[in-house]
Design brief:
about 375 residues, de novo design (two linked rop proteins), alpha/beta, Rossmann fold, disordered N terminus
Length: about 375
């Protein structure tokens, strides 16, 4: 309790007096004495680089501004060789939606997967592999400009997307996301990146919407898919503020690594670190011809895998961590620093109440 009171008072004092002492907020699971952090006089003399107001709860915005000031370059304890780490979620966090699903849906509609027998082995028999493949083989040999006239093309699109949605409803989220990544089997890594960049650029130019796809125009049970690639302005602003202030910013989520990289490039976030789902590559003397094998490389950045991916990549835990779903719970619980829950996920809200994490209402 005492450390939380000190943190609250320090936020107020740091905002009022730039040279004030500031105690790092502590994870209640750790009981070591809080380390003292001070703002340098030179930094205090400069105008503060702050968040844009946006839809932030003012108290949360003030806490983030103070934390950026005292953990970043403005701190006398700032070490450029060991910069503070901030971790942000991507899906339904930094991005209002799911870039991996956007890429998957486009691959289905263009029948652009690397189809061979080993690809079809990735699609589970339990979730309709045979009828999806049968529909594909009926239209795939025809010219592309007549596909829309073929009933089997529309069946293929519906069956494949319906199969994915059903599978993800019935299995764990980790298995669902691994499946999405494995569907890129056979793609050279750069080709997968370029494809994802093209899809996300197209989706960024269209407004968010819902589209329904049926096996025919009379289909009474079409599947619904989301469109639109849109950043959450407040979190994009925070990401850029953290980068300017000397933080190592990590974007972690269970998206295929090429898709996560394409999303960062679409948002013009060139300096961030990325932890997505990685696949093994086939061996070839010509590196450009190495293709993704469909074999997933651990850790998968979900639940405890987010901690493993960060620690293996950065060597330490985050100073600032944001979470939007139960997938982020292990990361938020790891180490010490400022923890912020965004939205209304029940598991995160329960943990926030127990551990005194900050809570920001959903921006949408």
């Amino acid at each position: 309790m005492r450390s939380r009171v000190v943190f609250f008072l320090a936020c107020v004092l740091a905002a009022a007096s730039p040279a004030s002492a500031y105690y790092r907020p502590r994870n209640p699971r750790l009981r070591r004495k809080a380390a003292l952090v001070r703002v340098s006089s030179a930094a205090a003399a400069r105008p503060l680089d702050r968040l844009q107001p946006g839809r932030w709860n003012p108290a949360i915005a003030e806490t983030l501004d103070v934390a950026v000031q005292v953990y970043g370059r403005g701190s006398v304890d700032f070490d450029a060789a060991r910069r503070p780490i901030a971790v942000l979620p991507v899906d339904d966090g930094l991005i209002e939606g799911d870039p991996s699903e956007l890429v998957f849906q486009d691959l289905v509609r263009k029948a652009a997967f690397k189809f061979d027998d080993s690809f079809w082995d990735v699609v589970p028999i339990l979730y309709g592999r045979q009828r999806i493949r049968a529909a594909y083989e009926q239209f795939s040999g025809l010219p592309r400009d007549v596909w829309d006239e073929q009933p089997t093309y529309h069946q293929f699109v519906k069956y494949f997307i319906e199969s994915y949605q059903r599978m993800c409803f019935e299995v764990s989220r980790k298995d669902c996301r691994i499946y999405l990544a494995r569907l890129l089997k056979g793609f050279p890594r750069k080709e997968a990146l370029d494809y994802a960049k093209g899809v996300l650029a197209t989706e960024a130019a269209r407004p968010p919407s819902i589209e329904k796809l049926g096996a025919s125009s009379e289909d009474p049970n079409p599947v619904a898919i989301r469109h639109g690639f849109l950043a959450t302005p407040e979190l994009l602003d925070l990401t850029r503020l953290l980068e300017r202030s000397g933080f190592d910013v990590w974007l972690e989520d269970p998206d295929p690594q090429p898709v996560l990289q394409a999303a960062a490039q679409q948002l013009r976030l060139q300096g961030v670190e990325l932890a997505g789902i990685s696949e093994g590559l086939s061996k070839d003397r010509d590196v450009s011809r190495e293709t993704m094998t469909g074999k997933i490389v651990e850790p998968v950045p979900i639940r405890e895998g987010k901690v493993d991916a960060l620690v293996s990549g950065a060597g330490r835990g985050p100073t600032l961590a944001l979470g939007v779903s139960a997938d982020d719970l292990d990361l938020l619980s790891y180490g010490d620093g400022l923890r912020l829950v965004i939205g209304s996920d029940p598991a995160l809200l329960r943990a926030a109440a127990q551990r005194h994490w900050r809570v920001q209402p959903a921006f949408r």
